[in-house]
Design goal:
Immunoglobulin-like; binds heme C; single chain; five-stranded mixed beta sheet; 18% strand; alpha+beta; binds copper (II) ion
């Protein structure tokens, strides 16, 4: 069984203290429940002292004030434990606030209904690029994530790599994440943000530094020109006429910003924020009727013949 969203184990220093805290507080809560249950059962089965003779039979047995010891002992145990939990929580919050070293890489992540725009910032303007839903980071180093939203409140959450951080319109929240081992980590919008909230997933792939650089250079280069193959060229013209108002493909006039950047769509493994695999059949079905895949989606159905759609699909698959 794979549990990509389980926070019971973690894979990086921004998440590890939270995982320990979750296990610790979870363990204490279970222990408290068990102790209370045992005390309750014991209280039910215990024989009470006989009521004083000659009374109505409803008077409390035992001397006045008997049983107060339970209150004192109970408070004496629970107050220090709760106080210790609070202090532990505050320490953990302090620990995950900032990474141990200054991040070299900053991602500007914009949460949209219902996908993630990811911009790789760089001091050199020509080295800034944008992608969607699939984030690559170099393994073993902290990455700063600057979060904003143009529509509603979302929440950025990669359970294995970091705690949740809300993405709030009008506010810029900053968090960080770091992967200790290479791998593909699943993320999910963790704040109900409308119809397709559940299908607002993303992936963080932690690459070796060399693989990360190769990927980054690939994203920075414009995709191969469309002229090579006639079907791809036809698809490119259709795309320019019907899709470019919402989507960007670098190196072409397509510069729309309503939908995800498609410059290197073919390098992504999934479509529509982790909803479907990125293969010919699913890409075709998506363009034919996006709302059938993701009801309520903000991409319209663009009228096209099956032959035209095949050309557009061929073009999109050439965007490596
Ligand atoms: C009105 C704006 C708009 C138009 C026009 C539009 N799209 Fe989209 N497109 C979107 C939005 C918004 C999404 C994000 C959907 C989601 O995941 O919730 C999207 C997503 C996609 C995706 C998935 C990208 C990914 O990485 O997940 C593909 C592929 C795509 N569109 C192709 C096309 C093609 C091809 C056309 C033209 C036939 C087109 N779009 C027309 C707005 C548009
Ligand atoms: Cu969301």
């Amino acid at each position: 069984m794979t549990t990509p969203l389980s926070y019971l184990s973690s894979a990086g220093p921004a998440a590890a203290p939270l995982t320990q805290l979750a296990w610790g507080l979870g363990g204490i809560s279970v222990a408290v429940s068990v102790i209370v249950a045992i005390a309750l059962v014991w209280g039910i089965w215990r024989r009470r002292p006989a009521p004083p003779a000659g009374g109505s039979g409803l008077e409390a047995g035992g001397p006045p004030g008997a049983g107060m010891a339970w209150i004192y002992v109970g408070l004496g145990i629970s107050v220090p434990v709760l106080a210790a939990c609070t202090v532990w929580t505050l320490f953990v919050l302090g620990e995950v606030m900032h990474p141990a070293s200054k991040p070299h890489l900053t991602l500007q992540v914009t949460a949209h209904q219902w996908w993630w725009e990811v911009r790789y910032l760089d001091p050199v303007a020509g080295r800034v690029f944008t992608t969607a839903n699939e984030i690559h980071i170099p393994v073993g180093e902290p990455v700063r994530v600057v979060l904003s939203s143009p529509d509603v409140i979302h929440s950025f959450w990669v359970p294995k790599l970091a705690g949740k951080m809300d993405v709030i319109p009008g506010i810029t929240n900053v968090t960080w994440m770091q992967a200790a081992t290479p791998g593909r980590y699943r993320g999910q919008c963790a704040e109900f943000c409308g119809l397709q909230h559940a299908r607002m997933a993303f992936f963080v792939t932690a690459d070796s530094p060399a693989a990360f650089n190769t990927w980054r250079e690939g994203q920075l280069a414009p995709p191969p020109p469309a002229s090579a193959n006639p079907e791809v060229a036809q698809g490119s013209a259709l795309f320019a006429a019907r899709c470019a108002s919402c989507h960007t493909v670098s190196g072409t006039p397509a510069g729309g910003i309503v939908g995800p950047e498609l410059s290197h769509l073919a390098s992504r493994e999934t479509l529509a924020a982790g909803t479907i695999p990125n293969d010919t059949q699913h890409l075709n079905a998506w363009i034919a009727d996006p709302a059938a895949v993701k009801p309520g989606v903000l991409m319209p159905k663009v009228p096209m013949t099956a032959a035209e759609r095949a050309q557009v699909v061929a073009y999109l698959q050439s965007l490596t």
